[in-house]
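In this supplementary section we document a worked example of the pipeline. Step one takes a protein sequence of length 459 as its only input; no multiple sequence alignment statistics are reported here. Step two produces a three-dimensional model, which step three serialises into structure tokens for compact storage. The input and output of this example are shown verbatim.
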Amino acid sequence: MSDTAGGLGRRQFLNRGVLTAAALAALGPLEALGARTAGAAPMSKRPSSPDYGPLYPAKDHTTGLELIALPRGFEYLTYGWTGDRMADGIATPRAHDGMAAFRRPDGKVALVRNHEVSSASGAFASPSYNPLLGGGTSTLVFDPDAGEFLESRASLAGTNNNCAGGPTPWGSWLSCEETTAVAANGVRHGYVFEVPYDGYGDPAPIKAMGRFAHEAIAVDPGTGIVYLTEDATPSGFYRYLPSKPGALAQGGTLQMLVIGSDAGGSYSTYADGTGTEYETSWVTIDQPDPAPGTTSTVQQGIAKGGAVFRRLEGAWWGNDRCYVVSTSGGPKGQGQVFEYDPAGETMRVLFASPDASVLNNPDNISVSPRGGIVLCEDGSESEYLHGLTTDGEIFLFALNQIVIPAGGVPGKTVAPGNYAGSEWCGSTFEPRNGNWLFANAQTPGITFAITGPWRRGSL
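The serialised model returned by step three reads:
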């Protein structure tokens, strides 16, 4: 089936946006629409962007539905809904999650997208790592000049609970299994898999990168060192030193971050607030692929003085730093954003949420080419995309308002219902100039392409 915006170019999007914003101005921003967002935190506690202003309901150019709210002048289209038939004939898997964008030689953008499926529903494509498991990735192609999606295909299958991951400088997506489960057929999970942006991924795990509840990955383009997060409590922050940069499957050394002196035991970051600073070092994990029933990766690191975090999730490289999210960390347990500087071997808490009404359990993260940071919220209230400046200022950028009407959406198989409580995930910018921001609503499984009057310093 066709799933495009009808070839609307970016300029046409923005021209339409001026008219849409003018019409919406009469309705008032979302502060006046509290009754439409059940359980929403008071909007007065959620700061708007000083550059972009408050949020307004915005129509999807693909379906005509008001699925999300955005600042004035911003427009979007959707693609790759769960169940949509892909170019290879396979139905789009559910549970869209982590994602990254890659610029192709022809100017098009390839998006490699995770599917966080853990059920033994069978692999949706072949070859697969484990034919019993339904997780994996799909790859989408987007034309940023025409403002339309062109196609999508399966690109990795037979994996388990592919939550996040990260892009590499050499043009691949590292897809991470957020589990250490052993499947019914005895196959172990809890690994990292590499998927080229322009082809099908090798369904063989990179075991030297560790077996644990992987979440996200960030790669230092200058050194090829890979930084890894773990979604658990306690969790560690890891780095992988490849024997040959860019050739991860050829082996390397896995290490865990230490804060302060390892002679003083393991340091806990659980309650640390905004501005807390650390001096860091690393210890080596002796058994990165521990067998079931043996000492886990994180406990090996803790025994050597490795620092512990509460549910490390998102990670992204930008501004010569590695930014990392602790979903449940901080004084209020509502999230922390860490900034790690490898040049100085230092880390600091860039932002810790003071209250759920300001930031409610961030998850995936990405960095804009303009320097700002996108935080994908996965909390218990209304679900927002937040912006965060490198000075630690937070603001709203988008709100999930997905409601599928009783009659469904023509051409879609998604069931009617209210999906406004679904988490945001997979935020990533078009890599050439950042004119497009892509993101996923995990349920019912929709990919968004957003464009508008971006400004340096915000996003």
